C-alpha cells in the first residue's frame, strides 16, 4: 500500500462518530483533541467578546467560534476563532469555510503534542494556504503570539504580546485590546 493510500481526507474525518473529541486532518494525518479546559474556554470567551464588540460597531466581517475550515481534501481544521471579512463570505459552503479566512486563532491546549501542532504544524499550514494573520494564545504563559503574512508569501516574524501590550491588527482598523484583559487573575 502506498503512503498516498494511507492519507485521511476531510470526508473520512467528517464520517467519524460524535464522541466529544475534535478531529482534524492535516496533510492527511489525523489530529485529535479532547474537550477544552476551563482556562481555554475562558480565554476564548474573552477574546471573542473583545473582537465582537468591535465588529458590532464596525460590521466589516464575521467572527466564528470553532468553524470548520477546509483548505483541500487532505487539510481540514477547526480553529478556536475565525474571522473573515464580508468580501470572503462567498467562501462559505454550507456549514464549513472553504479557503483561507483572514484571521485564525488557536488557543494552546496543555501537552507538548498540542503545543507542537499549534505552534508549528498549523502555523505552516495556515501560512501555506494564504491566511493573512495567525494568533496563538497561550493561557498558561498569558501571552499571544501574532504572525502576519508577508507580501512575498508566508508569515513574518513572531511578535509576542504580554499583559501591558496592545493587541491590534490591520484587519480590524481601530481595534485594540490590552492583552492583560484576556488573562485575568
Give an account of the 3D structure:
- The model has no long low-confidence stretch (mean pLDDT 90).
- The strands form four sheets. This protein has a six-stranded mixed sheet with strand order 3-6-9-10-11-12, with helices on both faces. It has a four-stranded mixed sheet with strand order 5-4-8-7, with no helix packed on it.
- The N and C termini lie far apart (53 Å).
- It has four helices and 14 strands.
- It has a single domain, classed as tt1808, chain A.
Task: Write out key terms for the chains shown.
tt1808, chain A; globular; four-stranded mixed sheet; 14 strands; six-stranded mixed sheet; alpha+beta
The overall average pLDDT, rounded, is 90
Number of helices: 4
* CATH architectural grouping: Alpha-Beta Complex
Structural class determined from secondary elements: alpha+beta
From the 3D structure, determine the CATH topology. tt1808, chain A
Helix content percent band = 10-25%
- Anisotropy-based shape: globular
Could you tell me how far the N terminus lies from the C terminus, measured between alpha carbons in angstroms?
53 Å
SSE layout:
Blueprint: H1 3-6, H2 10-14, E1 22-26, E2 29-33, H3 38-57, E3 61-65, E4 69-72, E5 75-77, E6 81-85, E7 92-93, E8 96-98, E9 103-107, H4 112-128, E10 133-138, E11 143-148, E12 159-161, E13 166-168, E14 176-178
Parallel strand pairs: 4-8, 9-10
Antiparallel strand pairs: 1-2, 3-6, 4-5, 6-9, 7-8, 10-11, 11-12, 13-14
In brief:
This protein is α+β, with helices and mostly antiparallel strands.
Amino acid at each position: 500500500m502506498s503512503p498516498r493510500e494511507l492519507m485521511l481526507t476531510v470526508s473520512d474525518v467528517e464520517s467519524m462518530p460524535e464522541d466529544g473529541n475534535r478531529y482534524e486532518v492535516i496533510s492527511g494525518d489525523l489530529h485529535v483533541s479532547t474537550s477544552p479546559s476551563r482556562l481555554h474556554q475562558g480565554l476564548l470567551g474573552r477574546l471573542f467578546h473583545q473582537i465582537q464588540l468591535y465588529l458590532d460597531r464596525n460590521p466589516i466581517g464575521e467572527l466564528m467560534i470553532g468553524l470548520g475550515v477546509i483548505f483541500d481534501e487532505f487539510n481540514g481544521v477547526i480553529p478556536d476563532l475565525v474571522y473573515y471579512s464580508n468580501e470572503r463570505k462567498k467562501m462559505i459552503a454550507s456549514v464549513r469555510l472553504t479557503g483561507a479566512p483572514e484571521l485564525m486563532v488557536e488557543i494552546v491546549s496543555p501537552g507538548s503534542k498540542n503545543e507542537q501542532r499549534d505552534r508549528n504544524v498549523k502555523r505552516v499550514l495556515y501560512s501555506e494556504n494564504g491566511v493573512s494573520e495567525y494568533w496563538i494564545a497561550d493561557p498558561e504563559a498569558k501571552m499571544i503570539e501574532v504572525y502576519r503574512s508577508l507580501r512575498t508569501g508566508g508569515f513574518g516574524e513572531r511578535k509576542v504580546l504580554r499583559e501591558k501590550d496592545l493587541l491590534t491588527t490591520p484587519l480590524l482598523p481601530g481595534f485594540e485590546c490590552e492583552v492583560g484583559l484576556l488573562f485575568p487573575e
